[in-house]
Each structure stands twice: as structure tokens, then as C-alpha cells.
Specification:
This protein has about 425 residues and is of the alpha/beta class. It folds into two domains: about 1-150 and about 310-370, Periplasmic binding protein-like II (D-Maltodextrin-Binding Protein, domain 2, 3-Layer(aba) Sandwich); about 150-310 and about 370-425, D-Maltodextrin-Binding Protein, domain 2 (3-Layer(aba) Sandwich), CATH 3.40.190.10. The chain has helices spanning about 1-5, 10-20, 50-60, 75-85, 115-120, 130-135, 155-160, 170-185, 195-205, 215-220, 230-245, 255-265, 275-280, 285, 325-335, 340-350, 365-375, 390-405, 410-420; strands spanning about 35-40, 65-70, 90-95, 145-150, 155, 190, 270, 290, 305-320, 350-355, 380. The strands form two sheets. Strands 1, 2, 3, 4, 9, 10 and 11 form a seven-stranded mixed sheet that branches. A four-stranded mixed sheet has the order 6-7-5-8. Strand 1, helix 3 (about 50-60) and strand 2 (about 65-70) form a beta-alpha-beta unit. Helix 18 runs antiparallel to helix 19 (about 410-420). The protein is globular. The relative contact order is 0.16.
Length: about 425
């Protein structure tokens, strides 16, 4: 146990030890014909019903195997890490690449899967950019990319037209003009969950208005926001938008749930939302919605409105226990990457996949529109900084960006708070 703890970051290991006393939260059946899957695709998560159905089909196709599923939502990383310390972790883990999971491969909590992607004929099935995002600084493929997301801006044209705005704004100037007109009519220009991850993502997207793409990885890894002239120009732009009333009132206290409610009920003209949220927009609002990107300044580094495209929403990770059951793991993984299963996630759950597919989610028109926008030249793609932000800085950075939505916070104050979020990573 002590040897295992030394392989983990000290603070992380201590937290897990205090929480569990090294006890396994999931008593695993260690039989050689048992495959244990630990998944974040559960409960009300988009695709949960499809996942349950395809696992049931897999069980019917492989009666010689016992397949056990363990489900957790946002606390999956903590539960998995605890079970790993006890040597009782699941064989395959389905979870996003974010925060704690960024460190798993480096500390031996999971096994690199690059050679299996090749041996099992999966590499050509995966989007090349997805492979890039899942590969760490030492060239290790952390997990097999599976689900991604497009992150556009949804515009409610009924709200905009009521305010006298005929088209979604494409430039910062047009956004400021549209926001004033919408507010004058008593509406909300842009709703955003300023207190949580949705606010963080939008602020970092705006920051990239002036940030050359090649500078992004270093900035988001090291966190020297005050030392980057491009980042400071982006933060200045953010404060100008905030002070002009572009964002919903008291945005620093709003959540992603508040954001989607305000948009879905026609109170707001726009929201920046990942594609899974677009799948939950009610039909009445869908008819009024146009999908585009975030407006850009004319002196910025982008020619078109920007949109985040990421392939990190979920992947299939291999644990040390799973590495001892490769024949079972191979059957399940190849099944999950089959065209039939991938297409079910697209058509029945509206998920954007990190797997190559020409299937269109016809029952999810906004998700289809976001995908089309991401694949043409109507928008410029910007990075999702999550794969570069150290795990220990993730929540402190969200706290810092929440403060940024509060009136009166200057670019200098914001950059100092954002940089301070990285203190425990040094």
C-alpha cells in the first residue's frame, strides 16, 4: 500500500487514504471470465440508456463471459482511485479526460493503450485529432477516445428578431450592439453559468481571441496569464463585454442548469453550450435556434466566429487489472467501436463521437447543425484547455473565473487570481 501511495501525487494519495482507510469501495469478482466495467455514462447522462442496451446485447453475444458494470457520475475518478489503491479496480474505465484523470497514466493508475489501438485495428477508426488530445507529453495514449463534443453558441432568433437583430452577431461590435438591443427589450443577451465550468470555458474561449494557437498549450499548462500580452488583451475584451452587460445579470452566481433553463425558456438570446446540452433544447426553442460561433474582434487572430471542438468527453481506459484480462477487454472494446454500436450513440443519444462516422443524428437537429459547423469553414476552432490545465489547478481556476464575472474585477486582478490557481502545481 505504501509503495502504491508513493506513486501518486502526495496530496491526492493522502486524500484517498483518509477517505477510505485503503478499503475497496467495489468488491470485485476476480474470476478469469469476469469483465468489470466502471462507467461515467450512467443515470441521466446523455447516452446512458444506449450504453445499458449495448452492454445487454454484448452479454447476450458472449454468454461465456460475466460482465459486471459499476456506475458513478462525477465522483468516478475518486472511486476508481480508491479501488486502485486496494488493487480492486475495474478492468475497463469509461470516463472523461479531465482534472484527476489527466494524471492516471503517468502514475500507473491506468495502462497506456497505444499498442492495443494498433493491434486491435482501432486507430484508423478514431479521429486523428482525438488521438492527439488523448496523447500525453511523453507520447503515451492514455485511453481510447470514444465520445467528443462540439461547443458552439446557440442563438434564439425569436429573441434577437424581437430586439431588431436579423442575424447572429459575428464580430465583437455586432455582439455589443445586439446585446444592448436585447437588454432594452427586457431580455438576457448571453446566459452563462459563471460560477461553474461553463463560465470558465467561455472566458478561456474569449481569452483565445488574441492568443495564437501555438501559444495556448504552454499558457494553459503553466498559468502565466499576467505574463502573456495576448492573454491580457483577451481578458480586457472579456471585461469590456461584461461591463457592457453582455452576460446575464449576476452571472458569477449562475450555474449551467440556470443557463440552460434561461435559454430553453426563451429568456436569453444566446448561450455557449456543449452539444449534449443542445440535445435537451425543447422543440419550440429548437425551431428558433441557429447554431454558430462566438463573435470575434476584428483585430484578433481569428477570421470567423470561434467554436470549441473536443474529443475528451469519454474514453475507454485500461486498468492494471484489465491488462491481465486482455482477451476479454479486446472483445468488449472492439464491440464498442463497431459501426453498429457507434451509430446507436449518434442516432439514439445524439452524442458526438471521437470515432469516425458519417451517420447524422437526424432526431437531434441542433447537434447535427453544430457538427456541420465544426466541419466546414463557417467557424474557427479553438482548443478546449482542459487537457493542458493541471488537475490540481482545475477547480481553483473555475473559482477564479467565477470571480471574473463579478462587476469591477480588472484584467490584472483576474489574471492574478487565475495564475494563483496554479500554485499547488509548482
Amino acid at each position: 500500500m505504501r509503495a502504491q501511495l508513493r506513486r501518486l501525487p502526495p496530496l491526492l494519495a493522502a486524500t484517498m487514504l483518509l477517505a477510505t482507510g485503503c478499503a475497496a469501495l467495489d468488491p470485485q469478482d476476480d474470476g478469469p471470465n469476469t469483465l468489470v466495467i466502471h462507467t461515467q455514462i450512467s443515470g441521466t447522462a446523455p447516452g446512458a440508456e444506449v450504453f445499458n442496451a449495448v452492454v445487454a446485447d454484448f452479454r447476450r453475444q458472449h454468454p461465456e463471459m460475466h460482465v459486471k458494470v459499476v456506475s458513478n457520475a462525477d465522483d468516478l475518478p475518486q472511486v476508481y482511485e480508491t479501488s486502485r489503491l486496494a488493487g480492486k479496480e475495474a478492468d475497463v474505465v469509461i470516463v472523461n479526460l479531465f482534472d484527476k484523470t489527466l494524471e492516471w497514466t503517468g502514475v500507473g493508475a491506468t495502462v497506456p493503450v497505444g499498442k492495443y489501438a494498433d493491434a486491435w485495428g482501432l486507430r484508423d477508426r478514431i479521429e486523428p485529432e482525438a488521438v492527439k488530445q488523448w496523447t500525453d507529453g511523453k507520447g503515451r495514449l492514455r485511453g481510447l477516445p470514444y465520445i467528443g463534443t462540439n461547443w458552439p453558441v446557440a442563438y434564439n432568433m425569436a429573441v434577437l428578431r424581437k430586439a431588431g437583430v436579423a442575424e447572429p452577431p459575428a464580430t465583437t461590435g455586432e455582439l455589443l450592439d445586439a446585446a444592448k438591443k436585447v437588454k432594452d427589450k427586457g431580455g438576457i443577451a448571453v446566459t452563462i453559468g459563471g460560477s461553474d465550468w461553463t463560465g470558465q470555458k467561455l472566458l478561456l474561449q474569449i481569452l483565445q481571441s488574441y492568443l495564437p494557437p501555438e501559444e495556448g498549450p504552454k499558457l494553459f499548462t503553466e498559468g502565466d496569464y499576467c505574463g502573456s500580452p495576448a492573454a491580457m488583451k483577451g481578458l480586457k475584451l472579456f471585461t469590456e463585454l461584461r461591463d457592457a452587460g453582455v452576460f446575464a445579470e449576476n452571472a458569477q452566481g449562475l450555474t449551467s442548469d440556470t443557463m440552460t433553463t434561461q435559454y430553453n425558456t426563451g429568456q436569453a438570446a444566446a448561450m455557449s453550450a456543449m452539444s449534449s446540452a443542445l440535445g435537451k433544447v425543447p422543440e419550440k426553442t429548437v425551431k428558433d435556434t441557429v447554431v454558430s460561433g462566438w463573435p470575434v474582434p476584428k483585430d484578433g487572430v481569428h477570421d470567423h466566429p470561434t467554436m470549441i471542438r473536443s474529443f475528451t468527453a469519454a474514453g475507454l481506459w485500461l486498468s492494471p487489472n484489465g491488462a491481465k484480462k486482455l482477451p476479454l477487454v479486446k472483445k468488449f472494446v472492439q464491440y464498442m467501436y463497431s459501426e453498429k454500436v457507434v451509430d446507436r450513440f449518434i442516432t439514439e443519444a445524439g452524442r458526438d463521437m471521437a470515432v469516425r462516422s458519417g451517420t447524422v443524428p437526424k432526431d437531434f437537429p441542433l447537434i447535427a447543425a453544430a457538427r456541420k459547423a465544426a466541419e466546414d469553414k463557417a467557424v474557427d476552432k479553438v482548443m478546449l484547455p482542459d487537457v493542458h490545465i493541471p488537475g490540481a489547478a482545475t477547480q481553483p481556476l473555475i473559482n477564479a473565473t467565477a470571480q471574473a464575472f463579478a462587476p469591477g474585477r480588472t484584467p490584472q486582478q483576474i489574471c492574478r487570481a487565475m495564475s494563483a490557481a496554479y500554485e499547488r502545481t509548482n
